[in-house]
Design a protein that fits this description.
There is one protein chain. With about 110 residues, the chain is α+β, with helices and mostly antiparallel strands. It has one domain (about 1-100). The chain has 2 helices and 7 strands. Strands 1, 2, 5, 6 and 7 form a 5-stranded mixed β-sheet that branches. It has a two-stranded antiparallel sheet with strand order 3-4. A hairpin with a 2-residue loop joins strand 5 (about 60-75) and strand 6 (about 75-90). The chain is elongated. Bound molecules: zinc ion (ZN). Zinc ion binds near residues 51, 53, 90 and 92.
């Protein structure tokens, strides 16, 4: 059984299809397993995003945070999906919004 788990971890497209089905712009960065829990780290693939208020594109990263996207029970292990979400700066002087979070389609 342990061998099966290792095979799954090596196959990032497996995680892409399982976890991020319907979310297009995500790269799996790392998969680690410890103490019966599998951690999947992922982040957005896009260079930037459009400001939701003014629509201008920004690729200036202000900061980022790690959100816990979902937990999946899989093969007797618990799988925790963590998604790094970047916050971009909107540089437009006439826009009331200063920062906005990277959008992910669902
Ligand atoms: Zn804006």
């Amino acid at each position: 059984m342990a061998g099966e788990v290792l095979d799954m971890q090596a196959d990032e497209s497996f995680w892409d299809s399982l976890v991020f089905d319907g979310i297009d712009d995500v790269d799996v960065e790392a998969v680690t397993a410890a103490f019966g829990t599998v951690d999947v780290m992922a982040r957005g693939r896009a260079a930037g995003a459009a400001c939701p208020d003014c629509g201008r594109f920004s690729n200036r990263v202000h900061d980022s945070y790690v959100g816990r996207l979902k937990d999946l029970p899989l093969g007797g292990q618990s799988v925790v999906i963590r998604l790094t979400v970047r916050r971009f700066l909107c540089g437009a002087g006439d826009c009331p919004r200063r920062t906005f979070a990277e959008p992910f389609g669902h």
